[in-house]
Amino acid sequence: MGAPASSFTPAQRAEIVGIMRDALQNDPSILTDAIRSIREKAEEQKQDSTLAAVRAHQTELQTAPDFAIRGNPHGKLTVVEFYDPRCSYCRSMMGEVDSFLSRHPDVRLVEKVVPVLGSNSVLDTRAIFAASAQGKYEVMRKVLMEDTTKPSMERIVELARANGIDPKKLTADMDSPQTIALINTNLDQGRSVGLDGTPTFIFGTAAVAPGALEPDQMDAFLDRARRG
């Protein structure tokens, strides 16, 4: 099959390249604007794809054991937070999340602990889930995320003793099938929506917001979720 009638000749292609080169030399912002437009379009497409995945997996994402539900357990709006206990940005958001829940008493927050930053994250996540068997999930989550000591099993045992947690039971429960299943479930759910960092917040099915957020950003995303 021959070339389409609209194909350019070598001379025409050379002329077009010359015109583009001259335009870029006279106004370099043309290239900058083009790159920005491409990036914005790619980000829009990624957000659309992510939100489609969120809608497809809404039930699983908004389901968690009772100990991992914060705020109003019967709240009209559900916000999902994926966090890693060793993530500095997640740690910096702890106070803001508390304030956010205080500002919005109709919000149900579902926590998804995901150890994505290596072996220390896995160790802390196992301890957090294991503490839930003693009704101490929130206590262990808080003390581990506020602790600045190098992570170790010895440090976890020390913190457990200091906070009324039976270290022997905790150690055993860290290796339990239930603990491993909870971790794998959260990781699978993160993969299902293309999670690529922590913290990541999902506001209903209206917005997915990665990274540490300012209070006004949290409120704006929630307003978007309220509007549907």
From TrEMBL:
Xref: SUPFAM superfamilies: Thioredoxin-like
All copies of domain Thioredoxin, residue ranges: 58-227
Matching PROSITE patterns: THIOREDOXIN_2
Superkingdom per UniProt: Bacteria
Coiled-coil ranges from the UniProt annotation: none
GO molecular function: oxidoreductase activity
Listed name of the protein: Membrane protein
Gene that specifies this protein: com1
